[in-house]
TrEMBL record:
The lineage of its organism: Bacteria, Bacillati, Bacillota, Clostridia, Eubacteriales. CDD domains: GGDEF, HDc, PAS. InterPro entries: GGDEF_dom, HD/PDEase_dom, HD_GYP_dom, Nucleotide_cyclase, PAS, PAS-like_dom_sf, PAS_fold, Rev_trsase/Diguanyl_cyclase. Pfam families: GGDEF, HD_5, PAS, PAS_8. SUPFAM superfamilies: HD-domain/PDEase-like, Nucleotide cyclase, PYP-like sensor domain (PAS domain). Residues 537-728 form the HD-GYP domain. Residues 415-546 form the GGDEF domain. It comes from Formimonas warabiya. GO terms for biological process: regulation of DNA-templated transcription. PROSITE patterns: GGDEF (PS50887), HD_GYP (PS51832). Gene3D superfamilies: 3.30.70.270, Hypothetical protein af1432, PAS domain. This is Diguanylate cyclase.
Length: 728
């Protein structure tokens, strides 16, 4: 056919036809020109867009765009509205197909009015439409297969099979066409899908099998299938391989499970709020922190109205910023004032971290709150702070705080300041004799007495081992003297109520209007204290010694008159030996105070009736050293301190505590050891009865040269025998 004849046929065609190149009309037949309402001379300068109703431009845009921007689609049927030169809107169907026109790429557009298209559909599908439908069928992303029932639905023959079905089922179309379903998919009955085919064929009701797994020797995977029946009686299955989705879903489930486990087991409290700030979920740690039985008790509570969030931070949170803060919560107040359903009591400290949860577009869809109970840490910090400024034993301020306050006063505008220094008398003696527990008790008692005597604004601190200092802001000399008098009165009252361990406090004060030189003021007060202490030292030590003697009387060897008997025996034996007065005085004091060190020994050892262990014997032997320290601290006993230390030494060197031997042992101690041993033997003890005097004499003779000085032992035996004769 000649090219001119072909163009004449196109020109005479009743169907509007045109060719578009680069968006412009390059050819239009008479029907197309007539439909547009324009002259050809006008159309040749128009774009197809000019004839398309604005609302439908998007649907045909790909066919009128530049060739380089065109998507590679060979043909397409599009319904749109055509707008002619007279402003009439005509509903049409356009058939677009890519062609080569005059050696260049172009688009052939065949247009039918909607009424003509409908008439054509009633009489059969247009060939172009059939091509389009075939292409759609083949290139659908999901698998599509058409089946025809055979043997009254006992099986189904495959009539059609698209490309996606070949891909998913790993088999070519030419292999399956005309083959029974049970042959192509031998395991279909095992997985239950065959029953679905039969049911749909019989009932005509479509069914959806959302997820199942199919597996045979050729293929395996998860499927999502729709089965429905056509009017022709054929069955169609539309299915897709959702294995990757299923695997992703399993991964997501595992991830969610791990998250849920981390969420529930986390020691950090976690709460999740929605975009409106309403509580959605909380883990166990969070519920436990706030004493809640479960999340339902507080579900829906609003985060942003929580009064524990500072206002400034609340604004930052609303602006999309993460906030962090520490606050304390009174659960008693929450329960009473806000009817918060908590079982927790008291006050706790919490560390909060609240993070806005955002989408990729920076839109907030919720909030994540993390919280930790830091009550123990906070209390520990407060305790450390307290201990850094307080004395742990007495609860008074310590030297560091005292010095800090002294500096603060120097920088203040006070008119005057007073400082009073206090010293607990005899503390070292009490520590050395009664032990540090007794000394600590004396310190605590002294601190309490001092604290009760001053104002709340006065600074009371323990600034040394036995020293306390009191700072009196804006005080004159009369106020300082009054404070000292109150302490003296309080000490007297304390001693009346606690005679077992009397308290003695020396004191000295200084007052000045020069608050810029507190160091000099402290020195003046300390000097005054020292003078007071020198004046009171003898009386203070005597009071402590008297207390120790009273304590010693509670021991068994005092209640039985041991010291009195020894003193009388020592006086008689000294006369027998014709000893000088000094020696007699030493023996008399040694008889009274030789065991004073036993006030520092545990009563359970002193009163024990069973044999002592080596460790217990060593502990009891310490009474010599304790007694020695006590005697040195008391001027009236200093002369016999060395004798108290050595009165348990043996002639042969096997005594204690120094292991002295022979004449290296003081004479008074050699005499006293004989007297002490003899009185113990002839007196009743808690663990035995008294020995006859003759048996005691035999024991002394037996110990002569080992435990006792042989000369003195023989002299004492002679003395006792003479006394016995005189008595008889």
């Amino acid at each position: 056919m000649m090219e001119s004849d072909a163009q004449e046929m196109l020109d005479l065609s009743p169907l509007p036809l045109c060719v578009i190149q680069n968006g412009l009309f390059r050819y239009a037949n008479r029907s197309m020109v007539q439909l547009s309402g324009y002259l050809w001379e006008e159309m040749s300068h128009l774009t197809l867009e000019k004839l398309i109703f604005p609302g439908d431009l998007f649907s045909v845009h790909r066919w009128i765009a530049e060739p380089g921007n065109q998507e590679q689609i060979e043909g397409e049927q599009i319904r749109f509205r055509l707008l002619n030169s007279r402003g009439q809107v005509i509903q049409v169907v356009g058939f677009f197909r890519r062609i080569a026109f005059q050696g260049a790429p172009g688009v052939l557009c065949q247009i039918m009015e909607e009424t003509e298209f409908a008439h054509g559909e009633n009489n059969g599908v247009h060939p172009l439409e059939a091509i389009r439908l075939r292409e759609v069928f083949d290139y659908l992303s999901c698998a599509v297969a058409v089946y025809e029932a055979v043997a009254d639905g006992d099986d189904f023959v495959i009539k059609d099979f698209n490309l996606s079905a070949e891909r998913i089922d790993k088999i070519e179309k030419k292999v399956v066409m005309g083959k029974p379903l049970s042959y192509v998919f031998p395991e279909i009955k095992k997985w239950g899908l065959f029953e679905v085919f039969q049911r749909v064929w019989r009932t005509g009701k479509a069914e959806h099998i959302p997820r199942y797994i199919y597996q045979d020797a050729r293929t395996v995977g998860w499927r999502n299938t729709y089965v429905f029946k056509l009017g022709t009686g054929e069955l169609v299955s539309v299915y897709d391989d959702i294995t990757q989705c299923k695997q992703a879903e399993e991964v997501l489930k595992d991830s969610e499970k791990r998250f849920r486990e981390i969420f529930s087991q986390s020691p950090i409290g976690i709460a999740i709020y929605n975009g409106d700030g309403q509580l959605m979920d909380a883990n166990k740690a969070c519920l436990d922190y706030f004493g809640l039985p479960g999340v339902d008790a507080v579900k829906g509570k609003e985060l942003l109205n929580n009064f524990h969030i500072p206002k400034q931070l609340r604004s930052q949170l609303l602006d999309g910023e993460t906030i962090k803060f520490v606050t304390d919560i009174s659960f008693d107040r929450l329960r009473k004032k806000y009817t918060f359903p908590t079982t927790k009591l008291g006050r706790c400290y919490f560390d909060f971290l609240i993070t806005p949860l955002k989408t990729e577009r920076n839109t907030c869809y919720g909030f994540l709150m993390q919280v930790q109970d830091i009550t123990a840490q906070k209390l520990a910090e407060e305790q450390l702070k307290y201990l850094s400024l307080h004395d742990s034993l007495t609860g008074s301020f310590n030297r560091a705080y005292f010095d800090q306050e002294m500096k603060r006063i120097e920088e203040s505008r006070l008119d005057s300041v007073g400082i009073i220094m206090f010293d607990i008398d005899g503390l070292k003696l009490v520590n050395d004799t009664l032990g540090h527990n007794a000394g600590d008790a004396l310190l605590v008692a002294g601190a309490n007495v001092i604290k009760r005597c001053f104002r709340a604004g006065d600074i009371i601190a323990r600034i040394g081992g036995d020293e306390f200092g009191v700072i009196l802001p804006n005080s004159d000399q009369a106020a300082a003297e009054t404070g000292c008098q109150r302490v003296q009165d309080a000490v007297s009252c304390h001693n009346a109520n606690n005679p077992e361990l009397p308290l003695s406090i020396s004191m000295g004060y200084a007052v000045s209007s020069d608050v810029k030189n507190t160091a000099n003021l402290l020195k003046q007060a300390d000097d005054n204290l020292y003078r007071e202490k020198l004046y009171r030292r003898q009386n203070a030590h005597n009071a402590v010694i008297q207390t120790l003697m009273e304590a010693l009387k509670t021991k068994d060897f005092f209640t039985q008159g041991h010291a009195e008997r020894l003193a009388l025996l020592a006086e008689k034996f000294a006369q027998f030996l014709d000893l000088g007065q000094t020696t007699r005085n030493h023996l008399h004091l040694l008889a009274q105070f030789h065991d004073i060190g036993k006030v520092g020994i545990c009563d359970s050892l002193l009163f024990k009736t069973e044999a002592l262990t080596p460790e217990e014997e060593t502990e009891i032997q310490r009474h010599c050293e304790i007694g020695h320290r006590i005697a040195l601290s008391a001027p009236g006993l200093a002369s016999v301190a060395d004798l108290i230390l050595k009165h348990h030494e043996w002639w042969n060197g096997e005594g204690y505590p120094l292991g002295l031997k022979g004449v290296a042992i003081p004479f008074e101690c050699r005499v006293f050891s004989i007297l002490d041993a003899f009185d113990c033997m002839i007196s009743d003890r808690s663990y035995r009865k008294a020995m006859p005097v003759q048996d005691a004499i035999k024991a002394l003779i037996l110990g002569s040269g080992t435990q006792f000085d042989p000369f003195l032992a023989n002299s004492f035996v002679e003395f006792v025998e003479r006394e016995l004769k005189t008595t008889s």
